[in-house]
Amino acid sequence: MSICYLCGLRLVSLKGLKLNNNEKKEKIVDLKRNGECVKHEEHIIPNALGGYLKSDNVLCEECGSKLNDAVDHKFIENFDFLKKLLNLRVDRSSNKNNQTKAKFYLSKFKIVLDVMWSNEKIECYGVNHHIEHEEEKIYFFGKKQRAEKYLKEKKIDSLNYELIISEFVELQDENFIFPNFNIENLNFKQELAKISAGFATKLGVDRKFLNRVIDFENKSILDKLCIYPFYPFTELDVEIEKIKQECYEHPHHFLSLFTLQFENKEEKLIFCYVELFSTFQYYVLLSDNYTEESIYHVYAQPVLFKEFEEIELDYKQGNYYFELLKCNGYDCLTWEKFNQMTYEEQKRKVNHVMEITRYDFYYEDYLDKIFTPITNKFIFNNNKDDKSLDLAFNIKDIYQTEYDRDGDIVSESVDLKKYRITYIDGFSNRERKFYALESCKFLKDKNFITRLEKYNHEKFFQLLNFIKNQMNKENPS
Ligand SMILES: [Zn+2]
């Protein structure tokens, strides 16, 4: 039995019932009396961000639409430009021209700018301003000819300050342009909480344990949320974040749900690490009253649209096609049965599986691949300073090794139960720490905030550069 995590009612399906609008309304009232609500399919990561993971066991129709209006809508506006520039499959048709509207957060002045972004320039099509009283300057963003009227309307024309007009925005590092994802932005936090709550519910976490994100009384998402930014505390993290954009399936979305437990405490914490577009990285505290078995679960998906073209089968690859089908829904298929199929039937089935699995993304393999160049770079060139030792330690820590009876290594694989959850701090004390808790502790430290802003800024520009390169590839001048 599944329950809507927001209203707490049992989810039932109305599929098969042919109801007109009025009948449906009556039915819903009836269901409510009975402690039930109507199932609907919810995207765990918004579809507008290219999220594919869906579930009809997390939210009811009513709560889904309530959260869509209250939280999703405003949040995805921030991603408009990414959505279009990255050619997401959600609305490929609207990507015909090279201009796209975007909302930019100018963190230097804490204002939002409406811009039109094209290959050549970023133009302010909306208007906004910022006043620096000490410098006696008014910064105006927008078309020059609109400035006078705007300043009059805002009753700031009488200030007699120097007027600095920007019609265009330059993407230079010192501009500090960033979508408004700062940690004080409630909408942003609530969306992260929604993604995490949906993911946890899909994985079977009971609603009563979502006490740090759900306001049970008001059936809404809390407005006091514990959201902590990810910061690369280890050399390994620094290297991973550097190398990511050169690796396959960039950018991607990644979710990791995990529990933390402290000595002498029965209740565990549930956290969800949310990474959107390989760029925006946060921890959401979902629960501090969890009393069941520990959970570790990850989900990853590439973001970019993948065209699918039907293939002709290659007779030498029979075994591969057979295995592919067996692993993807055709469990009972035997080699004999496979060979009895006509070529057309094999082709249809194989192509179908290839089409639906083209977004499958195995994060262990991915990490394994990006660790190889990192390991080679540091360990084999005899670099024995503290940084490389820290790096070596954390790589070793994140791998789990299986030995046989003679102590020989049987297999080595990345342990996702550690990735972005715990790390070994510094070379001398080698203490095991939790990212989320360290980040929470450091948020009071001004120096840390400065470092964090710089890191976030670098990550954002990394993504912009990736987009620029993509655009250049598609439209070589
Ligand atoms: Zn509901």
Topology:
Elements: E1 10-12, H1 21-33, E2 36-38, E3 42-43, E4 54-55, H2 61-77, H3 80-85, E5 100-106, E6 111-117, E7 122-124, E8 128-132, E9 137-141, H4 144-153, E10 162-166, E11 177-178, H5 186-202, E12 214-215, E13 220-221, E14 227-229, H6 235-243, E15 252-260, E16 268-276, E17 280-290, E18 296-302, H7 318-327, H8 335-340, H9 343-356, H10 363-379, H11 386-398, E19 399-403, E20 409-414, E21 422-425, E22 431-434, H12 435-442, H13 446-474
Parallel strand pairs: 1-2, 9-10
Antiparallel strand pairs: 3-4, 5-6, 5-11, 6-7, 8-9, 12-13, 14-17, 15-16, 15-18, 16-17, 19-20, 21-22
The protein binds zinc ion.
Features:
13 helices, alpha+beta, 477 residues, four-stranded antiparallel sheet, binds zinc ion, five-stranded antiparallel sheet
Q: Could you explain the architecture of this structure?
A:
With 477 residues, the chain is α+β, with helices and mostly antiparallel strands. Among the domains are: 96-178, no CATH class; 315-356, no CATH class. It is built from 13 helices and 22 strands. The protein has a 5-stranded antiparallel beta sheet, with helices on both faces. Strand 5 and strand 6 form a beta hairpin. The longest helix has 29 residues, at 446-474. Residues 91-95 have low confidence and may be disordered. Bound molecules: zinc ion (ZN). Zinc ion binds at residues 4, 6-7, 9, 37, 59-60, 62-63. Zinc ion binds next to helix 2.
- The overall strand count is 22
Helix content: 25-40%
Query: For the largest beta sheet, what order do the strands appear in spatially?
Result: 14-17-16-15-18
Radius of gyration: 26 Å
Q: β content, as a range?
A: 15-25%
Main beta-sheet strand count, sense and barrel state: 5 strands, antiparallel
Which spans of ≥5 residues are poorly predicted at pLDDT below 50?
91-95
Q: Which molecules are bound in this entry? A: zinc ion
Shape annotation = globular
Overall residue-averaged pLDDT value: 87
SS element count, helices: 13
Structural class: alpha+beta
